[in-house]
Amino acid sequence: MPEWKAPQRPIDHAEESLVTAILDGTYPPGDTLPGERELSGQLGVTRPTLREALRRLERDGWLTIQQGKATRVNDFWREGGPNILTAMVRFGDHLPQGFVTNLLEVRSLLAPAYTATAVRANAPAVVTLVEPYETLAESAPAFAAFDWRLHHELTILSNNPIYTLILNGFAGFYEEAAERYFARPEARAASRAFYRRLLAAARKGNAEAAEAVSREVMEQSIRLWQQARVADLDG
Fold it and tell me: Model pTM?
């Protein structure tokens, strides 16, 4: 039986179209949007639907709406809220240059902290979580899925739900980018070494060692990602 995909709701279509237009430079920061009548016609939605989509985008920091004035596109990096990142992942076929590198740099600050806290709180659970790496298939999808589960569970074991919420915002994008990253043998080798060293640290209950190896592999992942991007451009 074929799988039927539910049609996109008009409000989601309007929101996605506007976010994409902001990210691809159709409506750059500082620009103003067309009037409601024109914009609703362009998007093929009713004006009430457009207004609701605009309110959503204003709430997240994409836009500034003022009565009697044109709607202004914000500098979303400076004026946006945390939902900006989630929207970029959901709708971002035109992600800003350096987005993944910036994301990896943030992860390099967060991962060592939640990894150390997880080992400190429940080292045996971390051991159980990491041990399956030894039979991990040598494929990008297998590594991407394992790495996502590892970091997601580490955030949970850290007992700080904010880490988990932050990571959840990038769930689909994380695995998609990770598959591209793990397509390179050197990236898989680096992570295998990380899993091995993390397992050794967890077995000893050594949170400081776990933090150190996590920091090292996070910094290494940034270098490997940048090398992969240069190789893609050269190819």
Answer: 0.75
